[in-house]
Amino acid sequence: MAGLMVPWSRAKEKTLLAGWLVALWGPLTYGLAVWAGRSTLMVADLLRRITELAALFVSWYVYNRARRHGVAPGIYARWEKRANMAVAAVMLFSASFIGYQAYRQLQIRPMVEQVHWGILIAFLGVLVNGWFWRRHASFARDSYSPISESQYRLFRSKCLLDAWVVINLSSASYLQQWPWGRYLDPLGALVPACVLLVSAVQIFRIHTVGKRRKAP
Questions:
Q1: Which of 6, 12, 54, 117 is deepest in the core (most CB within 10 A)?
Q2: CA atoms of 208 and 205, how far apart (whole Å)
Q3: HSE of 69 in the Cβ direction (CA atoms, 13 Å)?
């Protein structure tokens, strides 16, 4: 067991690096869109993007550091667990905050304004995150790893959430002339909150299942 080494992959590290570098533009450009517009869903989505960026960066940093030092599987597994658990905690906090903000906005039901930039950025996100989803799904099939599993699930949720943002913002903007249409935006913000909550639970489960697999 002492002689075992983690099967490091330069291609996987490059994909992890590209993932957070590409994701970096999301909070920056989307932040400007949120500042120019007025939408509860866009605020929630911005927080979701910041949380996901942190998760992507941490995953790359842990993998890069472990590969460069050639650490043993046990040490690398502990690093993975600590990093993913920290990210899961941030996701739980973000989900709670978004839920609270959505509840407050449901009482007000404000008009949505200037959401076209948010729709455009989310549409581009569907294309980019869809590619990363397929890439990490391939890594997860080739060799099991908590990071590969979490990255695959993360980009899947990013792609689906971006699609949801496009649909919801377009609908909320078009249908807000009716009183019931003003519920669409704050209710739509609950979807990113639920996805962050589910993602956090899945991360906890990945590590729990990992422990069970190693049990004799």
A1: 12
A2: 5
A3: 12
Token pair listed for 52: 């996901």
Is the separation of the CB atoms in 159 and 133 below 8 Å?
yes
| Contacts with 47 (C-beta within 8 Å, 6 or more apart), sequence order | 94, 97, 98, 192
Q: What is the rounded distance in angstroms from the CA atom of residue 167 to the CA atom of residue 165? A: 5
Residue with tokens 């739509």: 188
C-beta separation of 146 from 73 below 8 A: no
Backbone φ and ψ of 7, nearest 5°: -75, 80
What are 182-193's pLDDT values in tens digits?
899 999 999 989
Helices and strands, number each (H, E), in the chain:
6, 0
From first CA to last CA, the distance across the chain in angstroms is 15
**C-alpha–C-alpha distance, residues 66 and 72, integer Å:** 9
Q: Is 8 left (phi over 0), alpha (psi -120 to 50) or beta?
A: beta
Look at residue 168 and tell me whether its pLDDT is greater than 60. Answer: yes
Given a contact cutoff of 8 angstroms between Cβ atoms, the answer to whether 57 and 17 are in contact is no
Contact 115, 169 (CB under 8 A): yes
Q: What is the pLDDT of residue 145?
A: 66
